[in-house]
Amino acid sequence: MSILKKFFNTFFKKKEEKKITSVQLGDQLKDADLDYKFAQLFTHSGGYFHYCGSDAEALKTLYQITQAEATKSVFCCDDDLKNFLNVLKIPHTESLELINDCAFISCEYLIAFDGRIMLSHNNIKHYPTSSLPDKIIIIANISQIVPNLNTAMEKVKRRGCLKNLTSISGNISNLDSPNANNNKLFLLLLED
Hints:
Blueprint (H helix, E strand, L loop, with lengths): L2 H16 L3 H7 L5 H11 L3 E5 L2 H14 L5 E2 L3 H10 L3 E2 L8 E4 L3 E3 L4 E4 L1 H4 L10 E7 L3 E2 L2 H11 L6 E3 L15 E7 L2
Parallel strand pairs: 1-10, 2-3, 2-4, 4-7, 5-8, 7-10
Antiparallel strand pairs: 5-6, 6-9
């Protein structure tokens, strides 16, 4: 074996050893604050995390994302979120259409255990997550962070019948099934 080949094999082996899994990171963060743990695991899975101290800051961040991603048309079925899009004069539709290159949605819960985001019919109507555009911008409040899926499900049960429950994670998550459509996820996290 050539010295160069040996170097590359050693280099890539060490690089692979340094990669940390979501489970390992979750274990390291078991005593961390829920918001910090969620943010770390969400970004580890490939999500883009943006903390926003106010609605004005969220509006500015939304504008920056839509400009950077060259967004032309947004799927948004939430009346409150449509106000953000109207202020920025971003074209949007209430039904998912082929022209939509982005979705701007709310969520049910942010799951700190693995950095996933729980969605329901309230957020995406009857559409499966696989039919959503490649870029998804989610807005949520810190109070929506829960420790794990069990807590989220308990809260869902207390609120009544929620349909179309699902969850999504960043585009490099190993939590999704191999056939899942991993989207580019942006999260705007607001103070309550």
